[in-house]
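[Structure tokenization] protein backbone as discrete codes
[Encoding] learned vocabulary of local backbone shapes
[Protein] chain in single-letter code, fold in tokens
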Amino acid sequence: MVVGEDWSIIPLENLIARVGEETHLVAGATTAAEAKTAFETLEIGADGVLLDADSPDEIRGAVDARDAADRETLDLRHAEVTAVERTGMADRVCIDTGSLMDDDEGMLVGSMSRGLFFVHAETAESPYVESRPFRVNAGAVHAYVRNAEGGTNYLAELTSGDEVQVVDTAGHTREAIVGRVKIEKRPMFRIQAEVETEEGVDRVETLIQNAETVKVATADGKKAVTDLEEGDEALVYYEDVARHFGEAVEESIIEK
């Protein structure tokens, strides 16, 4: 446990770099900002913070900094859209959460476990319907959605009280509680894209509702799926693994 009289970043960096994994480093702090710095230093951070503060706001801010430091940051990339096709009707899932999402937030959804598309929350105003900033119109019942533990769930198996992962376009994540799941028959698009990998090019795809209010993230910003075209660069999370009951496993698998 280290409390600096005249604290600065460099001594903390040196300590984090040198103490090793067998030692737990707790850094003294007097504000939420100092706590945030301690948790983020060298992208490793102190194992804990000893907070000397009377202000409830500083205490809450330090707790928020701790929670944020524990969350994943995902490496999102762009994939070239190679097909946008009308497919007919399917059972579509809307995920209504107990949290409000920002304009740059959504969820990762896809037909193939190795490649999930960024689907925006319904935060945008529309002439057709009121905004639903707690909702992601996610896709068909068979598709995967990333959960708070970094695994996946089928959209059809989500129920009230489950946790799902909310992600922003920079890859920052947080968890959200499912409040309700709505499954209705709707016309769908099949979206296919190609991802550049170390081995070459891989294909990923998903089914998503044919509706102007459903938007995906692209290199040109938020775009309605009804306006999506071949050649667009869709934002995806690509992970070259197979899934067994939602957990990543190293095995050969074919998805098509």
Notes: The mean pLDDT is 88. The chain has two domains: 9-70, 77-248. Residues 9-70 form one domain.
